[in-house]
Amino acid sequence: MLAPGEGHDGFVAAFRAALAGGALPDGVTAVGEAEQRFAVYRNNVAHSLTEALARRFPVVARLVGEEFFRAMARVFLAQHPPASPVLLDWGAAFPGFLEGFPPVAGLPYLPDVAQIERARGLAYHAVDALPVRPAAVAGARSPEVLRLVLHPSVSLIAAAWPVVSIWAANQPGADLGSMRAQGPEVALILRDRALEVPVRALPPGDAALVAALLEGQTLGLAAARAQVAEPGHDPAAVLGYLMGAGAIIGVEEAA
Amino acid sequence: MSVRHLPAAPGLGFKPEHFAAIRSTRPDLGFFEVHAENYMGAGGVPHAQLRALREEYALSLHGVGLSIGGAGRLDAEHLARLKRLCAIYEPESFSEHLAWSSHGGDYLNDLLPLPYTPETLGIVCDHIDEVQAVLGRRMLLENPSTYVLFAQSTLSETDFLAEVARRTGCGLLLDVNNVFVSATNHRADPRAYLAAFPLAAVGELHLGGHAEEALPSGPLLIDAHGAPVADPVWTLYAEVLARTGPLPTLIEWDNDVPELPVLMEEAAQAGALLDGAEVRHARAG
What we know:
heterodimer; A: mainly alpha; Outer Surface Protein A, domain 3; two-stranded antiparallel sheet; 6 strands; B: alpha/beta; TIM Barrel; 8-stranded parallel barrel; 13 strands; 42% helix
């Protein structure tokens, strides 16, 4: 380790190495049990970051159990420490980490659940934007030239597993016995007018329509894609949901 | 309305779970304090709540992530985020810690200690000069709670803080619980520490609860912010007020947060001591 002679930079580097389990930095003194007293710092760092991760990914934590999550968080922390004091930005790497973490290979849906929780975090903190009034859409021109601008909190997660059902069954107070879903689900995540962040499973037509709107396509093209994904699709329900949630923030005419 | 200073009254750390109770009961408090880093998202609930709170109460913005005691340069992006928050909410006070929390681009999420030397004094003063220049305001620097000491230190913590305040013009945030925690951990006398503390620079006081572990060499106190303020800390607080007169006083309770009324009882206890200090000072004056 670095000697105290190397100044504050050397001190901080040695302290950091000791936090990660290395020997105590030169010069540490205590009235006794220096290791145990220094361990308060080790515990604070590991515990506070583990708690922060568990707050961002509560369903992942619930699915693997508290003790397992704590141990897994230590591994994740060592590989992906936060790069900023703004911890609400932290965790982008967690779904990918889960995908490559052999001990959770038996829960193949876990990375997708983590994606939903990550998207919910982003939606919760997304920039504020005022919804349009219903009249703005009702009074608009032909869907062929109409573009609906969605709220910055809106995102879709297409999963190979019934992740919305899994997510919903693991909410506080949910009835686990009610989970019967099988097969892939597409999750729609947004922040609604009450500033809450619901997660909703979309049928294929709705999912294709929202995906096209997120790409900036016209409502006409979005509806056409929904027809391809789900013949006979009626866009009214999903558009009503978006409007009701305050997730449509602009109505533009394509050039 | 432009209140420039926190009122010399009790304040609470704002917890989102108390928002509805605060809005419906409008508790009689001098101010709320928030951790700046929790309001660095773009929008949504945190900002909606803080805007509403700000309309009715004085605000103390308390940073936990600037790493003022760190070895490298301050994180310019983070400083810019703090500047933005100050511009939006115009807090009556901005405070940070005598500690470091980042190293080599990684954030460690704890307030870590530093040796007190002429070198670290220069670093901390440079960092505070930069913060005050960028924010365009005077900041308060908080004394830490510590669990070990460093043989490298050539200055006492109180001399270090006094010199920082003198050189940079910053104010100090005196955390009375931290004084008690550190003194107990290092088998030192908290009253000797307070006697040496540059009280004239203090702009705010912190009170919080600590946890205790028994070790063979003596108790290990941990600044856990998950319990009521301990009796010896109340006594030290009253002794500080006797010397300073009333000062803005925060009750910190960040873990295992109880219902609002429990925090209001702590605030009321601080309020009673503040009232007493006011009477004494009025007589003395």
